[in-house]
Amino acid sequence: MKADVNGITIGYDDEGTSDHVLVLVHGHPFDRTMWRPQVEHFSARGWRVITADLRGYGETTVVPGVTPLSTFARDVVGLLDHLGVDRFVLGGLSMGGQIVLEVQRLFGDRVRGLLLADTFAQAETPEGKVVRNEMADRLLREGMSGYADEVLTKMVAPHNVEALPEVAAHVSGMMHNAPPEGAAAALRGRAERPDYTDLLGTIEVPTLVVVGSDDEFTPVRDAEYMHERVPGSTLVVVHGAAHMPNLERPAAFNKALDDLLLQA
Asked: Where is the AB hydrolase-1 domain (predicted)?
C-alpha cells in the first residue's frame, strides 16, 4: 500500500484490524520487509501491525541531502495520522530505534510501549560524525554493493550466514537494493542526532530493550546503558544473534516482544 504524507509517498503494510496497534520501524540500510516474521506472528495474535519504508528506502520517496531523525519521526506519525491511529506500541531496530526515541521525544503522549532493539541512545562522537559523512560520500560515489558485502557478517552473525542462508540472502538483498541517495541522507542525519540519555529517564511506558549477544555495531553494553536508565525496563539478550535478532532468532525475539505487549 502507499500513502501521500509530508510531501512524499510512503510504501507500507498494514496487517490486522485490531484497536491494539504495533508499529515497527526498520533500520539502515533496510526496508520494511525486515519485519516479516514479526508482522506474521503478531497479526496472527490479534494485533494490527504497521510497517513502512522510511524516507529514502524501499518503496518510499528518495529525498537526497540530509534526513534528520526528526523528519523520519514526523513521517512515521504522519502515516499513523493518515491511517487514523492515535495510540500505539512502537518498536525499532538500530537507526529505527533512534527514530523511536525521537518519536517518544516529540509525540510521547501517543506511545503505549517501546521496543528498542540493537540501538543506542548517545549522540554521535566527533569521530563518528566524520565516519558517517565519509560513508555517505562513499555510497554516493560507489553505490551500495561494496558496503553491503563488507558488513553482511556484522549484520548477521557469521555462523548464521552459514546456518540460515535465506536470512543472509534477505539481509544482503535489502542492503544491495537500498537507494544510495536515501542511505547517504540518513547517515548524514544520524551524524547530527541528539543525545537521548536524559530522555530515557522520563519514559513511563513499558519498555523492552533487546540486543543480539554477538552484535558488534551496538554491543550488549549499549543495551545495558539504556536498560539502566529507563525506569522499569526489561533487557533481553538474544543469544546466537548479531545485529538482526528479529531475523536470526525470531522465536526468541517474538517471545520477548510478546511479553512487552502483555504490559502495554
From this structure: 21-250
Does the pTM exceed 0.85?
Answer: yes
Q: Which residues contact 218 (CB under 8 A, 6 or more apart)?
A: 94, 118, 119, 120, 211, 243
- What percent of the chain clears pLDDT 70, i.e. is strictly above it? 100
pLDDT attached to residue 107: 98
Spell out the alpha helix ranges (H) of the chain.
36-44, 69-82, 95-107, 126-142, 145-155, 158-163, 165-177, 180-191, 197-200, 220-229, 245-248, 250-263
The domain in which residue 189 lies consists of: 2-263
117: closest CA among 87, 96, 89? 96
Phi/psi of residue 40, each to 5°? -65, -45
Which pLDDT tens digit goes with each residue over 195-243? 999 999 999 999 999 999 999 999 999 999 999 999 999 999 999 999 9
Are 31 and 53 in contact, with CB atoms under 8 Å apart? Answer: yes
Q: Could you tell me if 251 and 99 are in contact, meaning their C-beta atoms sit under 8 angstroms apart?
A: no
Q: Is 241 left (phi over 0), alpha (psi -120 to 50) or beta?
A: beta
**Count: domains in the chain:** 1
CA 113 – CA 93 distance, rounded (Å): 15
Q: d(Cα 26, Cα 37) in Å, to the nearest integer?
A: 13
Judge contact between 35 and 7, C-beta under 8 A: no
